[in-house]
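Human: If only I could read backbone structure tokens as easily as an amino acid sequence. Underneath my words sits a plain record pairing an amino acid chain with its backbone structure tokens. Take your time, and here it is.
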Amino acid sequence: MPFRSLDTIRAWLEEFASLGYGFGGEIRVIEQDGAGGANTGLVYVQLADAATVITIQPETQDAVRWAITMESRESPVTLDAPELLNLAAELSVISALCAFLQAKSIAFVGIDQP
């Protein structure tokens, strides 16, 4: 699907960043091998308070619905109350980003949503 191109996803992330969501971690696009050598991207998220690998991508190659994957960890994370509140805020931004990417994908392919 064209909406998975590296350049398209980078542009969408720039647009999302301009919306003013506060985020202390890092959000970027990394190259992902697509079918037939397609130039696809995967959204990579690094949280500020928890070293957990998080990725955001369409559920399947042809899907417009996006999903968030949180990789398993080798060790537990211990946070105090303020750090946990910051983590919750970061996760809410990631959720908003996932919804944003899904909306952009739906608009890109011209699907009407009820």
